[in-house]
Amino acid sequence: MLLFHLAVANFVDSLQQLPCHAEESSALLQFKESFIIDKSASSYDGAYAKVSSWKPVAGGNSSCCLWDGVECDEMTGHVIGHNLSSSYLYGSLDSNSSLFSLVHLQRLNLSDNNFNYSQIPSSIRNFPSLTHLDLSTSVFSGQVPSEVSQLSKLTSLNLCCNLEIETSSDDPQGLLKLQPSDMRSLVQNLTSLETLSLSFINISSIFPVSLTNLSFLTSLKFTDCDLFGKFPMRIFNLQNLKVLKVNHNQDLTRYLPEFNRSSPLISLRVGFTMFFGTIPSSIEKLNSLQELDVAQCNFSNSLVPLHLAILDNSLT
What we know:
- This protein is an alpha/beta fold.
- It is 12% helix and 16% strand.
- It is elongated.
C-alpha cells in the first residue's frame, strides 16, 4: 500500500512538473494583457480574476498548466481547456487574439465577462477539437459566425443571454443574431450536441425541424428567439431530453402531446407562446418534472401536476 501511495504521489508530482509549451504560455500571457480587470464585468457572486495567477517565472521553469483556468493534456502538455468564466475580463475579442493559436483546445468557457459588444470572431474555426463552447452572458453582439457550425465535435454549445447592458431586466434585449441558413447548418453539422442554449438570440425563423434528428440532446433552450410557426412534435420523442425551454416565442404554436411515464423531462417551459388545446392529464405521470411554465398560452385547462413544487413563469 505504501508503494502504491508513493507511486501516486510521484505521478501527481510529474504532472505538476509537466512543462507548458512555450508558444502556448506566451499566447496565454498575450491574451491576459489584451484585457483589463473590471469587477463590474462579471455578475456571479463567486467571480474573481483568474488571470492574476498567470505570471512568467525567471528561468522558464513555470508551467502554464498550473495557472488558474488552464487545463493541459497529461501526456502532451498542450493546453486543452480554457475556463475563464466570471473572471472580471473587460475588453474586445477579435480574430487576431492570441487565444486562437491554442489549436488543441477542447473546452472553452468565457461566460460572464464583458467583451464590450465584440462579434464572436470567425477564428473560432481554429478549434476543430472543441467539444464544449460557452460564450454566454459576455456582451457579444452581431451575427453568430457561420464558422461555429464547423465545430463538428461540439457536445455543448451555449451562446445564451448576451444582452444589452442598459436594458431593464424586465425587457432584455438580445445582442446576437443567427441567420436561419446558419441555424440550419449548425443543426445539420453538430450532430453530437447534447446541450444547446441559444436563448435571447434573434433567429426569426420557423423552429428547425432538423433538431429532431439530434438524438443525444438532453437540454434545448430557445427562450425569446422570435421563432414562429409549428413546433415539431417529434422533439417530445427525444429519449434523453430533460430540459425544453421555448417560452416567450409569441408566434410559436402547437399543442402538448400525451406524455410517457418514462420521459426524463425535468423542465418544460412553453409560456408566452401560442401553444393551445389542453394540458394532457398524462403530464401527471412525469414524476421527474420539476418546472412547468404554461403562462399566457391558449390552453383550455390549467392542470398542474400535484408533485410540482413551483410553477415558474420567469423569462429564463
